[in-house]
Amino acid sequence: xxxxxxxxxxxxxxxxxxxxxxxxxxxxxxxxxxxxxxxxxxxxxxxxxxxxxxxxxxxxxxxxxxxxxxxxxxxxxxxxxxxxxxxxxxxxxxxxxxxxxxxxxxxxxxxxxxxxxxxxxxxxxxxxxxxxxxxxxxxxxxxxxxxxxxxxxxxxxxxxxxxxxxxxxxxxxxxxxxxxxxxxxxxxxxxxxxxxxxxxxxxxxxxxxxxxxxxx
Length: 216
Ligand code: IMP
Known about the structure:
By secondary structure, this protein is of the alpha/beta class. The protein has one domain: Maf protein. The protein contains 5 helices and 6 strands. The chain has a 6-stranded mixed sheet. The chain is globular, with a radius of gyration of 17 Å. It starts with 9 loop residues before the first strand and ends in a 5-residue tail after the last helix. Inosinic acid binds at residues 17, 48, 76-79, 92-93, 128, 161-165, 177, 198, 200.
């Protein structure tokens, strides 16, 4: 079995996405780690030209650890819609354009689904993916992934969350992520594998089991 390394001390969160940053801070809060974001350190955003979520997560974590000399944790994530052959997937952020406006991205999802006649819930299956990478200055890396399956709602619902949250209704729930508080989106017992709900919380539960310890 691969050896895991404990994550302690000061850590860079290698993201400039405020929605992700807030969630990652919440998910890491119980573990007594000092967090600083890539934005706070003025680190540039590297080009994300990988072919997989895990590759893009590694690109971001490695760039941040090299620039800061600290361990860095990144998340690469997106929504994959079955009827759109997995789109927007790796390009979830790009669909929002340079202004990072998700109203047009959501409208595009709905238009593409309508073009394909995908109107019934079972034709609108989708999942979110989160790939988390921790990179250390000496080259050690750890990767953890989480997924959550559900459907694309007929129309956006709820003001909460970020990105595609208002159109994603996770299986077993009546509400979209946009209608849930952050805590509900993380899951009822989100520090654990069974209790985590969102893709990110599920990836964090894996990370926590391998690399994090709660302070005594
Ligand atoms: P990236 O990982 O920086 O390439 O961006 C991922 C994009 O996927 C975000 O900008 C969001 O559009 C979308 N995304 C990832 N996770 C979530 C989530 O938890 N809720 C809603 N949208 C998400």
